[in-house]
Amino acid sequence: MEQYDVIVVGVGSMGSATLCDMAKKGLKVLGLEQFTLANELSSHTGQSRLIRLAYFEHPNYVPLLKKAYAGWRQIESDAGVSLLHQTGIAYYGKPEGPLISGIQSSVSVHDLNMASISTDHYAPLQIPKDYKGLFEEVAGFITPEKAIRTYAQQALMHGAVLRQNERVISWRQHPNHIAVQTDQSSYQTDKLILTAGPHIQSLLPSFKLKLTITRQLIGWLNPSRWQEFSIDDFPCWVIEEEGIPGIYYGFPILPIEGFDGPIGLKIAYHAPGEVIEPGQVKSFDGSQGSERLLAVSRRYFWDQKMTMLNINSCMYTYSSDDDFIIDYLPQTDEKIILATGFSGHGFKFVPAIGDVLSKMARGLSEEVDLTFLSVDRFGDQEHLT
Ligand SMILES: Cc1cc2nc3c(=O)[nH]c(=O)nc-3n(C[C@H](O)[C@H](O)[C@H](O)COP(=O)(O)OP(=O)(O)OC[C@H]3O[C@@H](n4cnc5c(N)ncnc54)[C@H](O)[C@@H]3O)c2cc1C
Predict the structure, then answer these.
(1) Which CATH superfamily is domain 2-45+145-206+321-378 in?
(2) What is the distance in A from the centroid of ligand 1 to the CA of 121?
(3) 163 CB under 6 A from ligand 1?
(4) CA of 306 to the centre of ligand 1 (A)
(5) Is it true that domain 85-141+212-318 has CATH number 3.30.930.10?
């Protein structure tokens, strides 16, 4: 039977970076991925993911974000690729709303740079006059599919074993090893890392964790004047509309050269979508979601003639407080590591989480305080072992 120092279950966003880091540190590692790399049936496809530093969700995340920014630049330099594009993000919302006040809180706690902009700063946008505008220069987007492939390739180049289209069915902890059963083979490992995204529940049969899987729709619009939205002139944007939860957000049009499709002006809504089982992610009627995103475009863009070119879906894995869950699985003697509950905002952190999980597997301590992401915060009502 094949034996490893560490097996990573799920080579998606967090798993690919973790596998890469451990391979670089000289560990004997295996990554098991049930589908192919960068697959449409998990949480990481859709061409682009926002990255921002002045985190409106909570200032606690900023040290981890600083680590992530450094990690993105490191993997880019190691692999000779471009993954992080600092177009800046324009934020708009009521001054007292969670978006603007949350950003200002992170700015003041961590002394970050943030500029004020007027509501008519970007000509294509139609922003209510009583909203406040902010611009964060270091923010922008990452290309998730390319990032996952880059990490996986680097992991392989440093000796990792990667098996695609092989699903982990179960694992069992024994006194001296952990046995992992897949649909094709059996393995033994000293440590196990579970980075299974929205499919995590089937791997936690005796550990009940409150997680909610939702289907999220993303649209690509066809504007009247494409040149207005070029990556050189138009930034990423986030708008918090008064009276509704979450945020609307979007990207510039990404040029064909250098970026995968779909083509068009990407727009999305970051708030819980329909609750689903992971297998249902692609069975949806896009017309309602399409209508909603078109209505958003008519409220916030001057161009009233946009049409929808393409609508796609992806999944969020919500924890009960929208904060990540990064910890050792209780009562496993720190042999099994869990990273889940990324609640629709995890991708930007990928290099930092990869480093953190790799350190946890090697028994090293982490300088960034992550106690706010521990399993313990839920108390006994939320989980039973
Ligand atoms: C529409 C959308 C927009 C988003 N926008 C942003 C954004 O702008 N910024 C941001 O920071 N984040 C964003 N996110 C969130 C971010 O993409 C996720 O938080 C992140 O991808 C979660 O990573 P993960 O590693 O937990 O899961 P995944 O990337 O889904 O990886 C899990 C992997 O595990 C594999 N797997 C599962 N079970 C098994 C098994 N039993 N055996 C083998 N393999 C298995 C899966 O096939 C998958 O490849 C967005 C998400 C969506 C859906």
Answers:
(1) FAD/NAD(P)-binding domain (3.50.50.60)
(2) 34
(3) no
(4) 30
(5) no
